[in-house]
Amino acid sequence: MAKELTTREENYSQWYNDLVIKADLAENSAVRGCMVIKPYGYAIWEKMQAALDKMFKDTGHSNAYFPLFIPKSFFSREASHVEGFAKECAVVTHYRLKNDEVNGGIMVDPDAKLEEELVIRPTSETIIWNTYKNWIQSYRDLPLLINQWANVVRWEMRTRLFLRTAEFLWQEGHTAHATQQEAVEETMKMVNVYANFAENFMAMPVIVGKKSENEKFAGAIDTYCIEALMQDGKALQAGTSHFLGQNFAKAFDVQFTSNEGKLEYVWATSWGVSTRLMGALVMAHSDDHGLVLPPKLAPIQVVIVPIYKGPEQLPGLNEVAERIKQELESKGISVKYDNRDTQKPGWKFAEYELKGVPVRLALGPRDLENGSIEIARRDTLEKKVLPQENIAVYIENLLVEIQNNIYNKALNFREENIRTVSSWEEFKEVLDNKGGFISCYWDGTVETELKIKEETKATIRCIPLDSEENTGTDILSGKPGKYRVLYARAY
Amino acid sequence: MAKELTTREENYSQWYNDLVIKADLAENSAVRGCMVIKPYGYAIWEKMQAALDKMFKDTGHSNAYFPLFIPKSFFSREASHVEGFAKECAVVTHYRLKNDEVNGGIMVDPDAKLEEELVIRPTSETIIWNTYKNWIQSYRDLPLLINQWANVVRWEMRTRLFLRTAEFLWQEGHTAHATQQEAVEETMKMVNVYANFAENFMAMPVIVGKKSENEKFAGAIDTYCIEALMQDGKALQAGTSHFLGQNFAKAFDVQFTSNEGKLEYVWATSWGVSTRLMGALVMAHSDDHGLVLPPKLAPIQVVIVPIYKGPEQLPGLNEVAERIKQELESKGISVKYDNRDTQKPGWKFAEYELKGVPVRLALGPRDLENGSIEIARRDTLEKKVLPQENIAVYIENLLVEIQNNIYNKALNFREENIRTVSSWEEFKEVLDNKGGFISCYWDGTVETELKIKEETKATIRCIPLDSEENTGTDILSGKPGKYRVLYARAY
Fold this sequence. Notes:
2 copies of one chain form a homodimer.
Chain A: H1 12-22, E1 26-28, E2 35-37, H2 39-58, E3 62-63, E4 69-71, H3 72-75, H4 79-85, E5 91-94, E6 97-99, E7 106-108, E8 113-120, H5 125-135, E9 144-153, E10 167-177, H6 180-200, E11 207-210, E12 222-229, E13 235-245, H7 247-251, E14 255-257, E15 263-265, E16 267-274, H8 276-285, E17 302-306, H9 314-329, E18 335-337, H10 345-354, E19 359-363, H11 365-370, E20 372-377, E21 383-387, H12 391-416, E22 418-420, H13 424-433, E23 437-442, H14 446-456, E24 459-464, E25 483-488
Parallel strand pairs in A: 3-9, 17-18, 17-19, 22-23
Antiparallel strand pairs in A: 1-2, 4-8, 5-8, 6-7, 9-10, 10-16, 11-12, 11-24, 12-13, 13-16, 14-15, 19-20, 20-21, 23-25, 24-25
């Protein structure tokens, strides 16, 4: 089974597609650009959701739910937002179907045309700020710290499972504050929550930075992001947090009476991550055998496979396996014991490698005699035989070690693939032959950024937060550099 | 604040609307028929989701996600399904907006018309069975036990918060089985899961029964339901579980190779509950002071309010309150300590009564001297003063007692409001003057059912599972009764 995967070397893009489908994460649906997230993929997403949701609540946020539909006119209210979002959208124009008397089947009822068309939300700033208008009167109503888990639709022309789909699942935080400072602090807090999640749960190192004017969110003053590096040397934006200033408050007339009795516009932020993280997770760690999942997000952390010749050997193996399973579960470890007789052990080994189960235990008749068990790590593919005694403690520690190892491997790869260049020739040479992040000076103009994008398809991924504003020369224009930035080709 | 609620006596319907809005559960949005679920309401829904999700997983189901959009033609495949569902739907006809050069603002781009219109899912049988076709080849692929948490849209003309909205949130289970027997068992298992959830979490007694032909789901062979009684004597359908036979398998050509090597159509079920449960929860238990929440679904189970005259009294109260809060939290009880100085204790008392917090603790300077604390129960509004010592154990037990008391109160009300009648005059008299469920014989014909509905607006809520099939006379037609059924006016 695993043999059917295209290798990364051969065709990274095809390897990714093969893996997402063969590991049962997702597949394309009958509706153009929309995916079906299959149970195994959804189980990983649920683990991501649970961890993120806890982090949001621990930082004082509550969940709520706003409508799927946004009246068309709402988009026109915030000038730059409409340019960025109102174009490639699914538009509801009618609210009824009827029997088609002429051609059979059903047809849209022309009498059921909406007075104002409704757009399926591509993001919810407009409908939410229209609602906040009624919720915010006084400084006592602030801050308002709300998150929504929802589906959104952006009519993308070229789609790829998880990375870019017409419909996707995400969370969108929308907060309202009395002061600019508080909103800026919230923006930074949440981008750091994302970085913490990416590193500690996904085992995926990220660079926290600010987007250039050209790459920022339509309607934001500043956009901050986390950027990760994939194994093919391309960057992937994994989450964004926007300081929206008073733009949406002004567009929807949301004012509050301050502590001093003055009427002021509210300050806003928004921040989101999506099922795109699933794509990032796959591409950051997996190998030619299949998925490599960090234990903290693996739906099954340990699988136990019995090895036996005749069915008379199974009861003894079942007994030991069930005991070990219980020991592990009592430590909060999720375990699957796969004693199906419809598949051979070799098939099961390949299957759980493909599915990225972090630890595999194999138990045969000889192990019963010796009180031993075979342990295989998915990350390194190492195998060893250990005593059954205290195996639960060993595995508990091993899962931590695997989580760290996956992170460190990705971190080493990332560090090896940030290259400082100082000439335009070097820039192009590194980009074409090595990929990765290129660190160099930028003169701060959109012109330069766009010219580089046009010539190389590389974009400024971010101005890293720890970037020093010292002197240097723009890689292309030769003008004085304003910041040291990271360029890369990106997903 | 609580005084602004219309009383149930005065106008039950208005009381419900007032309560949903004033208790911050939900409100109408700018989009016709769509609601905003506010943080406090959503927190209750999250508790419902968590409990149900665990029950689904404990019974072997996995979550997945299918597209929001369904190609129009899919609805025509199952004949009765299209009649029931494809009519009042939101229809996406275009995928792009553009600047309106003539009138300003934005307009639907006429060049971006979809070849086939997409319907926003009103329920997902069609898109899911179209997908299952590729997942099921052999008996080894069965059973397939999948659930989806999602938003759905039905273009209702008359909407009410939670009870009937154009967009609502729900879960829909869709399972596939090798045999009829297994599918029937699944249908019954899930309607019983719903009954268990309603009774043990919502503290809401329900009657489990089968729908009449006229009331069953469009596309089902049999629909089972749970029916609850609201305080105004009207019934509310709180969840349904459908045995779909091979209808969808045939419509989407889903066949499998059986154990004996024969090609057979797959057997199906589907089952769902929605945010309608929020409406049921409110109407089942609440009173003229506000919400009454069962402790198992209350976002805040205990609130502590300090009573003080000068700010110098607060630190001492804070210390004791925080200690008690920690004791309670260590028992897994959710506690809010509200020591805001922007509101008076009386305001806070009314507020938490309105919000249905099951237990309120009040702590004043005299309590510090005496080592005492005042405890008020939301369900009975009883107050007593108890020693602070061992208060956590007392409250832990009290929460169980409140949960049971709320259930028993609703059960008594329900039992008192099931009336057996034996004449048509009596039927109408009871319906108009007392409401509730009316138990009587039905001849099993759609004609009788519809005639009764037309004359009285009462419908057959269900044929209770424990209904004995013994002889009796139909209440209207006088023909031999086929079943003893429950009639009621319903939401």
